[in-house]
UniProtKB/TrEMBL annotation:
Protein name: Uncharacterized protein
UniProt keywords, alphabetically: Membrane, Transmembrane, Transmembrane helix
Domain of life: Bacteria
Species of origin: Subtercola boreus
Transmembrane annotation, as ranges: 7-28, 34-59, 71-91, 97-117
Length: 165
């Protein structure tokens, strides 16, 4: 639970820290001058993408209640962030690592969308099941009929399911 909670809070900091790391890495590890504009633009896009994924993850009610992301989120976001950190070193395989980072970002985005839709579907289905149960229990309007009263004693059992008194 500690790791999942740590990632919950890390996502907010990562929106600022990781793009800054790429910029610092560009200057420290020998980025070329003509690359500066491309690095600046890509860091802006990176920050927006990370913010979008974090907001989609935060949109899930279960994540907000527990203040912890799922293990699937931890795996994908961790891989994505590690690839971003690797991009900041500007290694000879930097192009491959950058492509892997973009692919991991897209996977994290679509995974968080799928989890949000799945959770929303379950919650909406629960509401519909509640309505269906209420309709089956006779709470839906029915034709009014007179109770049958026999001579003698009879027992009336209140079920508690009828909200009308």
């Amino acid at each position: 639970m500690f790791v999942r909670r740590a990632f919950y809070y890390w996502q907010v900091a990562a929106v600022v820290v990781l793009p800054l790391w790429v910029l610092i890495g560009w200057s420290v590890f020998g980025g070329q001058v003509w690359q500066f504009l491309i690095v600046m633009l890509s860091c802006g896009v990176l920050a927006l993408a990370m913010a979008a994924v974090a907001l989609i993850i935060f949109a899930r009610k279960q994540v907000r209640l527990t203040r912890a992301v799922t293990w699937q989120d931890v795996l994908l976001v961790a891989l994505w962030h590690v690839s971003i950190i690797a991009v900041g070193f500007f290694l000879p395989a930097g192009s491959f690592i950058a492509v892997a980072s973009v692919v991991l970002g897209l996977v994290a985005f679509w995974s968080s969308i799928a989890q949000l839709l799945g959770e929303t579907k379950r919650r909406v289905q629960g509401v519909f099941d509640t309505f269906q149960y209420a309709a089956q229990m006779g709470e839906a309007p029915q034709a009014v009929r007179e109770p049958i009263v026999a001579d003698g004693e009879y027992i009336v059992i209140e079920t508690g399911r009828n909200h009308q008194k």
